[in-house]
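G., the chain you wanted modeled:
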Amino acid sequence: MRSYTRVFVGNCLFTTVCLLPVPLALLVGCIAWSEGDDWAWIAFTLGFVGVLGIVLMARRTTYKELPLVTRKNRLKVTKVSYGDNTFVMWAPHSANGTPAAELVRADVLEASLVRYSPEGEATFTSYWREYTPDEFTPLIRLRLRVHGAEDTDGADGFEITDEWRIPSLCLSAVTVGRLVVLVEPAAAPGQSRVVPQWPRSTLLAGTRTCRVIGLDGRTTEVTRRVGRQLRQMRISRAAGGVAMNGDTIDVRRLEPRLAARYTELAEWAEAHPEDRAPSTEPGEEARWIVDDLPGERAGFGSVGRRWSRRGGVLALGRFLHMGGTDVFQDHGPVLDIVLRVYPVDGTPPFDAARRLTVPMDYLAVLHRTTDVVLSVNPGGTTYMIDWSRTSLLAGLGAATVIAPDGEEIPVTGRSETIWSLMNLLASQGLSNPSPVLDLRKRRMSPAAPTLLQAARSTPHRTKYAQRG
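Predicted structure as tokens:
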């Protein structure tokens, strides 16, 4: 994880080289002052103003590059009430299709990355109001089992294999294996055109949460209630769309005819109880494209000795909202986010909003977790997202602990255990950027018994555990 000071100094040097006349003005001022010239103060003034500009530009660039959250990012006013398990997403709209198209479910049987090769390197690339440019939208080959309109198991559907560009924000729907598609009427047998609906797919996959407030004011959780959600989407599509307040549809605010249809659907759902769909459909290994996507290498994390000695700690945060923008980097899109931070000092959680780059491989597993690991400065005023630790906590790497006797203890998927190990390492000032924690190393000896005990324990689930 890059430190703020190192990045800031680097940006200062780079900006100074780009604005070379600024230090030259100071040099000219010094020479003129030593020779007693009256105009020396002009060169000094230009030089000092230029230096101030360099510092401000470097500070702004550093803040843009690093995933920092500070006090100025605290969200003071919001129109959306975010619960701890709320996740709201704004993703680019998909093609609506013709009125005759049927909205149905499709299961992803296989997925493979065809092409993702942007040329922006580490720089930020902007597209004016273009949210899915081909350069930064991965092309993925999918084999789908498309269901019939009232089909629940796919028996009346058909299979299709094609390549689609999938917005980065919606990649988790592919990992889950549940999509929403529009099927256009076939011009000839076997020639049906399938148009994936990516934002709706993240809703059906359970990445986005969804609640409905009925006419009686009662709130119903419909996340991963696949049958109800499909019928709900068809009603909304027929009406030209229904606005959501965060992750909630308030039927009381809909026009009477549409509200009546939603109420009828709610009554149908009560008469036909439905289990929640699994967090991921069987056969995830055939859809697992995460390893081919760019992102941060998973690991237990690096620890700066000075940071550890002065009281730096790790904390957890949770994404509540992600919204697409028209800015991109090679390893992921730049998103408008709302993050809930859980301070370790016992103070109440707070929400922060800012714009930052989110790695693409993390976006592909948003259905599992929206939690992130934060590195907190000794003063407790600055929080930086540690993507390496976050990736390991999200299951993007195979986490293993090797005991002093050589026994290998797999801890992949045990988020509470991994979190405990990360905190123990940070408190001892021990760096381990790899996903393999080898306790046989000499520098690990003092903390090995405690780390081994944590690796073998099975802690109770907490509110920080992965979504499911």
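The radius of gyration is 26 Å.

Shout if anything looks off.
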